[in-house]
Amino acid sequence: MASLFSAPARCFFCGRGLFGRYCVSALGVPFCEAHQDIAACRFCGAPADAAEPTAELCAFCVRDAVLTRTDSAREIPGIRDEMHRLDLRLNVPVRVRLADRAQMAQRGGHQNTAGLTEYVADHVVSITIVKGLVRRQFGATVVHECMHAWLVQNAFPPLSDRICEGLCQAMAYRYLREHRGEPRAKLLMERLRDDPDPIYGDGFRMIRDSAVKNGFSTVVDTVRRTGRVA
Ligand SMILES: [Zn+2]
Ligand SMILES: [Zn+2]
Ligand SMILES: [Zn+2]
After folding, report:
1. The pLDDT value given to residue 7
2. CA distance 44 to 22
3. Distance of CA 41 from the midpoint of ligand 2 (Å)
4. Whether 86 contacts 171, CB under 8 Å
5. CA 20 to 30 Å from 158, out of 68, 167, 197, 227?
6. pLDDT for 29-42, tens place per residue?
7. Measured at the alpha carbon of residue 60, what is the angle toward residues 177 and 67, in degrees to the nearest 5?
8. Looking at the CA of 12, which ligand is closest?
């Protein structure tokens, strides 16, 4: 994104004053057009910090990211409390672990997989989340995967991918909505709502439209009884 407005600010990356045209990250942070060829932050598109071992994030997002088991252990209890408030309770608790992108791919995800739930019949074996998500993205991904785990533990009928991912995205959206005052959560909500993907995006909009008419818990009950969305 570039702006023509005269800049009040300095480039966060090199510290130079910004005059004329400059770029703005998805979070509104300004930077020089000249940095557009530097690797962009995976989350907000600002120039990423090459000095960081996890380089794919900018200096702002890396401070917010869940990178270690300590970070994850700090976040999980709050996320669990919020899931309970949203009426998402697992029958059997499931351990959440972190993995890097290569490990996610080995576990059967693809390059951009943020989370994976592994299960055998109705037994959920594990939930794995990729390292380096910003805090609310980590939370939303944990909630999404816990919804998969809950569907498995509650023996839902076979569901289409669109209904299954739509329900999980809708639960993640409900979690994000609790944090909509935060710029990153707001951005994640927009991306989720506008996702062009025919499974995740269309699935979310189908569940949302039904939930607006019938209420979310009715949608879940209907899917449980019929395998379909009314
Ligand atoms: Zn600059
Ligand atoms: Zn960033
Ligand atoms: Zn999913």
Report:
1. 47
2. 16
3. 5
4. yes
5. 197
6. 999 999 988 899 99
7. 80
8. 1
